[in-house]
Design a protein that fits this description.
alpha+beta; nine-stranded mixed beta sheet; 5 helices; about 15% helix
Length: about 270
Amino acid sequence: MPTLILQLKAPLQSWGVAEEGVRRATGDHPSRSGVLGLLSNAMGMSFGDDLSIWEPLRMGTRVDAPGARLADYHTALAEGDANPSVTLRTYLSDAAFLVALEGPDDLVGRAAAALRSPARTLFLGRKSCPPSVPVLAEVSDDDLDTVLRTYPWLVGHKWLGTDRQWRAHARKWTSEEVSLDTYVETATLGRGSALIRDVPLSWATGDRRYGHRIVTKSRVPLPNPFYVPSADEDHDPMSDLSQDMDHDPMSGMDSDLVTAPFGADHDPMSGL
């Protein structure tokens, strides 16, 4: 089955998790609900539409840049209210995620077409978070797991290659490879797995419901496009020392190698 590849990068993005009172937190990677909301918005779907069309899609996420958490003290005054409501909303700043969605040809094709020409404005989790690059990267014939292992690191990808901030971040890496976190949907619980409640069953007003999925966390190595090997990488710093291993530093003091300036029979005490 083909894989729809999304690149989610923006100054701010927020992927809602369970709300606790006035706190509106974000997860540390895109939720299934948020990504399917993005696709549904691109297709012009309404809150009451059937969401089961997305069930065949298997989702995997790679954290190409985790970003930094940012909290926003938010107030809103509804009509008729005497006092404003207060919330603390959390965002991810300067994060980048590669999302792979594997599924049937027709469904992947429809989603890709919608992302190329979306029915409505796209945003990453909240309406205040527009993407800074095209969301659709490409449609690949590779399976989801292969895409996560082989697709170029977004920090060095063509859409981000001219961003000086990302380049500065990437130069911090001094190794030939980078190791990135991945979150992939699996059928059973195992090592590194967790049960997450972010599968949208209904977005109808007054009837929002979510189901569970199993997500397994692991890591994948990728080539670092900014790695520059040292010019003396193959040089052995001890090799110069080994060249003179047979040299006797006392040899210059041998009498047969030193020419006496006053002759061999000269007595340096004779003038006294």
